[in-house]
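Most newcomers find our protein records easier to grasp once they have seen one. The structure tokens are whole numbers drawn from a learned vocabulary of backbone shapes. The record below serves as our worked example for the rest of this section.
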Amino acid sequence: MDVSINWLKEYAPFDCDMRTFAEDMTMSGSKVEVYSSEKDKIKNVVVGKVLSLEKHPNADKLTICNIDIGEKQLIIVTGAKNLKVGDLVPVALDNSLLPCGKEIHAGELRGVMSNGMLCSLGELGFTKLDFPNAEEDGIMVLDEEWPLGTPIEKALGMDDYTVEFEITPNRPDCLSVLGLAREAAATFNVPFNEPHPKMPEGEGDINDFLSVKITDTEHCMRYAAAMIKNVRVKPSPKWLREKLRVCGVRPINNIVDITNYVMLLYGHPMHAFDHKYVKGNLIDVRKARKGEEIMTLDGVQRKLNDEMLVISDAEEPIAVAGVMGGEYSGVYEDTNMVVFESACFDGPKVRYASRQLGLRTEASGKFEKGLNPDNCMPALAKAMELVVELDAGDIIGGVIDVYVSPRTERKVPFDTNRINKILGTEISKDEMEKTLVSLGFKIENDTVIVPTHRYDIAKDEVTQYNDLAEEIARMYGYNKLPGTIMRGTATARLTQRQQFTKDVIKYLLGLGFYEIETFSFYSPKNFDLLNIPQNSNLRNPVVISNPLGEDTSVMRTTAVASMMNVVQRNYNSRIDNVSLFENATEYHVVEGKELPKEIEKFVIACYGKGKDFFYLKGALEKILWALNIEDVKFVRNTENTMYHPGRCADVIVDGEVVATIGELHPVVLENYGIKAKVCVCELDGDKLFEHIGAVKQYKALAKFPAMTRDFAFVCDDDISNGEIIDIIKASCGEYLESVKLFDIYKGDRLEKGKKSLAYSLVLRDKNATLTDVIADKCTTEILENLEKIGVFLRR
């Protein structure tokens, strides 16, 4: 929101430098992004008077001008042909700077010394719309009397400051000069000179020329209209053009400038319709009908749908409500009667139409925030006052005002103790009351009456006191609020689920893995890279409706793809040893539900010297041990196409798969251009959490000695280590304290398709010294049971 500082001072007469203004307004809640002035871009340019004009002796197209700048006279050579004696002109003196960045110095032109330059509109940064009486191609001639030598920035209204405010979405009242002036008056403790325009009297009755109907009362709260006849379209006066220009609005003509001026003053967009194009003398605010189209003012034919709000005459739409008028809804040279519209439309409905049509305007930007319908009549009255002041036409008597949803003032009990408790302050009741009144609130019978322009206040009983406290705090000064220790008995702690995630991350870091963090969306090309089957559910992702590009177009269904992109980047950077993990979220489509199912995964990956399947399996076993998860089984998985068919296993706890671990398939590694063997583990955080064991209990040291037995078995390649260990555990029962695989051998000494597995067993009797008889019995049971599945003692 760009605002003229001089315009603000008309309603809030504060007196301070610009830096203080910017800092104090920001601290009170109206953030100033930047301020600037046209005068900062111009230097050493003054008002001069043409005393004489002589033809240049050495150039037919040049003229020698004698210019009076008050303190002295100068000779300046120019090529312009529109000057005459007595004209007041902008004179750029020696060592001057123009807004376009051009520096002017004295110099000789065809043998005659020129002590500066006479400036045109363009050289001063203006167009003919800014100064309609000036010639566009010649030297600018001032149409007002100014003392000679006056700085040109003062003569042309360039000495104002433009202040850019960042307005938060909850403060649409500050999208206006008056709204910001109210804030400035409260900030600097000066009176707020709020205008109270009155509708001028006119001739005739507007109802004879126009009728207004609101069909869609849900999305149009108010529609007010006034009319003028005998329209006199002409340039606006200088003061009006200056205010518009400083606020970043281009002057056009008096009728259009009036609507723009009122929009800036009240933050309430207006529109002017040529009455002769309002068919049937009817304005109807309704939803568009299916198949309707409209040619908007920008000359584009636009298709409407039945969810868009339009302003229609008796036959067809003439404007998209709150966005832009139709092709014939403007003001033209032959316009005789004009309808001024001041309405209030539903913000979300305006935003919907704006987005669907791809048409964002300043009006739609304001309506989207939710404007105050109570501003419709003051804005319309001010426009009519300007019509009279600028002699833009003759007013037709009466006003049409259809107000279907009046706003009511909210009321909040004025509990100063509660407000002070929220802020941790001891602000007096009088000071609070003064602050609230300065912001437009009323205090009656210990009740705060919230003005209708502050509909962000007291939306519910839960936040109403916080809202009032914030209003008082920002004017009191956030920097003055005392620092206090948090009071109360509540203690914050992590939930068991949160602590679980934190613990797993801690264990992985302790095992030497580095944590990464990636985006939750990626390219669907990752499914091919990971060798995922075409009929897999993993190829049914959540598609992002407005992606930045194809590489970020779907939500991930497997976090392995995100991990592999990082692994690939490290491999390409010649990193020899990599150990990474990510606490990631996967998104899986659930049929019949709008939102996807989110699954927390811990994805672990490694490659490099000594970092093979067993290295990663060992790390996983340590994590499971730390979480006190027992009875873990590793079952071979040959169907997961991401992994090597002979080097992949599902991790099963209580019959449920909680993880998958394995070496990636050679095809996957080739797709990523990685020649190293990469091992990956996918841990399902939600399932793992369900199987966390009880808190570890202290166990006394064993009182009786243990006995060890070592075995080497020969079996087929397809018999897994897990199967053998399960049989050993079942055979030994309570006497088995631990079993550990310590060697695997495959070579020429064994038959093809065979392997040798060596185990170390620790046997112990908890209640007595273990005897050889019991140990031998365990050994016999182990050998007999293993022979049943084709596992034999190696001889």
Q: What stands out?
A: The radius of gyration is 41 Å. The chain is about 25% helix and 25% strand. Residues 772-787 form the longest helix (16 residues).
